[in-house]
Design goal:
By secondary structure, this protein is mainly beta. It has eleven helices and 44 strands. The N terminus is likely disordered. Bound molecules: (dicuprio-$l^{3}-sulfanyl)-sulfanyl-copper (RUQ) and dinuclear copper ion. Dinuclear copper ion binds next to loops.
């Protein structure tokens, strides 16, 4: 009976929506919930958490979260509140199920991300950025940065497919990418580790003189859905280890804010009599918040004031200073996150080694810039604004504050890495309201639309760096942990732990699902998702054929449940084989795969999709070709042969 009382509220809620609520057997339903609770040792908060996240079969999630896939080089798409993994978007690395990296166009796309002829088989994805219109997610595109190789990718949310990978030849690593300006005019990519701009060798002893960072602004052409490298520009900055970035919005539109964590300019050398980088970089009490007027930078570049370095237009430091593009403000100690409030009026910075969230007032910052009120300049001549006069408040927030997100009630949420908590605090009052434990060492957090001009509140996901005791043991390498929190309830409630076993997710963004309108099938039939157009080699039904040309054998093939046509391909040993394959189906979810063993041939063709595959028939023999998706009752019969005759 006590169990029934304990679960009373929930049981009542269940009964209220049960068609059998009025029947005499109603108490049985209550006792079954309490019996389940008892059997599974669940307390009432466990049951409310389950009820807040359980999503019955066929019911769709209200939000989608786009998360970096870390070392996997991919992007994860997770439904909220269920925390179900819905998609892994193949971006920087091959993805076999999607045939990404096993056909001509996806090979070429991946190769476009190679740097200086080096094939790159991995990426370190950190920060996804949804495209915005007027500072709000518009659900059209997603950008993601690769820290290791200083690359950016563009994903079209019409079909959740990567369309472009770019890398400048200016910088060697990035971190604060990708962040977009409020109308997605630009995607921001700042360097992380300084190096000579444009590449080349310079002894590290000349670090101060010759090593530099840069803040890149990649122009986005919305009509083409592509970044336009020719219209990109960069601003040279001192070698301070630039970190995260955020674009100003509303009140602070036209500006961008970038952190730095190594104004000491330490460069390590632990075996050469120097302190390790980590202690060398933590000497100063403050580093510099970079305040960038990108509208002015854009105008200066348009006026021909940039210098082209290895293909990128760069506003050199003296020009950036003279044009009023760059100002510094001290920021306490080894900062990491910089986050602009939804109204664009405040900029929140947290220092990993400082217990405060520092709130800069954009109005004050702008006035100081206009009055040229400087307290000096850095060794490179960049004017420094007075800290005390630029801030609105500092909130004593806890240990190791990193990243901040916002809700619709004027509150901010800041991750506390060292404390393993998230602090909820009121922005106007600069006052901490509540904290919730994370398991453990929370890095980024993502709130529903929590970095836009109109956050939704409701949900927040803590992206934890350590999982320790949260899941069953699977050997020494544990999964990462994402924890869903209900931030609309008071106090905040932890709802769900989601293990992530394919890489360390860094940042994520959460968008209302109804802002997305993905297609179900490709039309017209013969569409190539990578080139984003009907493929010139698309095959119509009844037009299947095999042609012998100077460059080899061209097989024009269709796939439809449950056969390939043609299903016999006869070639000679050593011949080039080009397979042009169209899935001519237009039924939702009617995906076929196409594989030839021992030839690294493997593609996935969604309804209406076309793929081109080129390979050399190096070895004579008989090689089965088959469909790799269990598409129909006669799926096993969806097969054929590649016959390679010896010479
Ligand atoms: S990171 S835990 Cu954004 Cu790469 Cu902060
Ligand atoms: Cu097509 Cu299996």
């Amino acid at each position: 009976m006590r169990q029934i009382l304990l679960a009373g509220g929930i049981a009542l809620a269940l009964l209220a929506c049960s068609p059998r609520a009025e029947q005499a057997g109603a108490p049985a339903a209550g006792s079954s919930v309490s019996a389940l609770m008892q059997a599974r040792k669940l307390a009432e908060p466990d049951v409310t958490a389950a009820l807040k996240t359980y999503t019955p079969t066929g019911v769709h999630d209200e939000y989608l979260m786009f998360s970096s896939g870390g070392h996997s080089g991919q992007v994860l798409v997770v439904g909220l509140p269920s925390m179900r993994l819905l998609k892994v978007i193949a971006v920087f690395t091959p993805e076999p199920w999607q045939g990404y990296g096993y056909g001509d166009q996806t090979d070429a796309l991946l190769a476009s991300g190679n740097r200086n002829g080096q094939t790159l088989a991995w990426a370190d994805t950190h920060h996804p950025a949804l495209s915005e219109t007027a500072g709000d997610y518009d659900g059209k595109f997603l950008f993601i940065g690769d820290k290791a190789n200083a690359r950016l990718a563009v994903i079209d949310l019409k079909d959740f497919v990567t369309k472009q990978i770019v890398a400048s030849n200016l910088i060697e690593s990035d971190h604060g990418a990708a962040f977009v300006t409020p109308n997605t005019d630009y995607v921001i990519e700042p360097t992380q580790y300084p190096a000579p701009l444009g590449g080349g060798y310079v002894p590290i002893e000349e670090y101060n003189e010759k090593y530099r960072g840069a803040v890149l602004f990649w122009k986005f052409d919305r009509s083409k859905g592509k970044l336009d490298p020719a219209a990109a520009f960069a601003i040279e900055v001192p070698p301070y280890g630039q970190d995260l970035a955020d674009a100003g919005k509303l009140a602070s539109s036209g500006f961008a804010f970038v952190n730095s964590f190594n104004t000491e300019r330490a460069w390590g050398g632990t075996m050469e009599g120097n302190p390790p980088l980590e202690s060398g970089a933590s000497q100063n009490d403050t580093d510099f918040l970079h305040v960038i007027d990108w509208k002015k930078a854009e105008a200066a570049v348009a006026a021909g004031k940039a210098e082209t370095i290895n293909g990128m237009r760069v506003l050199r430091l003296p020009v950036a200073i003279a044009e009023g593009v760059l100002h510094f403000i001290p920021e306490p100690k080894s900062p990491h996150g910089v986050d602009v409030t939804p109204d664009g009026k405040d900029i929140v910075v947290s220092g990993k080694l400082d217990t405060h969230a520092t709130i800069y007032s954009f109005e004050k910052v702008k006035a100081l810039i206009d009055q040229k009120k400087y307290v000096g300049s850095d060794p490179y001549g960049v004017p420094i604004l007075p800290f005390e006069e630029a801030i609105r408040a500092q909130v004593e927030i806890g240990l190791g504050p990193l990243h901040t997100q916002f809700d619709d009630q004027g509150n901010a949420y800041t991750s506390l890495f060292l404390e393993s908590k998230v602090a909820k605090w009121n922005v106007a009052e600069a006052r901490v309201l509540e904290k919730i434990p994370a398991h453990y060492n929370v890095g980024h957090i993502a709130a529903a639309e929590g970095d836009t001009v109109s956050p939704d509140g409701r949900f927040l996901v803590m992206i934890d760096k350590w999982a320790l005791d949260r899941f069953a043991g699977v050997g020494p390498l544990l999964p990462q942990n994402m924890q869903l929190v209900d931030i609309a309830s008071a106090p905040m409630q932890l709802l769900y732990d989601m293990p992530v076993p394919i890489g360390e997710p860094h940042y994520a963004q959460i968008i209302k699902a109804d802002k997305l309108a993905p297609i179900d099938i490709y039309t017209p039939v013969g569409f190539n998702p990578v080139t984003d157009t009907k493929d010139p080699e698309a095959v119509e039904a009844e037009q299947e054929r095999i042609e012998r040309r100077a460059d080899g054998v061209h097989v024009y093939m269709t796939a439809v449940r449950s056969h390939f046509r043609p299903d016999i391909v006869r070639v000679k040993e050593g011949e080039n084989v080009h397979i042009h394959l169209t899935n001519v189906e237009q039924a939702k979810d009617a995906t076929h795969g196409f594989a030839i063993g021992s030839h690294n041939v493997n593609v996935s063709i969604e309804p209406g999709e076309h793929a081109n595959i080129t390979f050399v028939a190096k070895r004579s023999g008989v090689f089965p070709m088959y469909c790799t998706e269990f598409c129909s009752a006669l799926h096993l019969e969806m097969a054929g042969y590649l016959l390679v005759e010896p010479n």
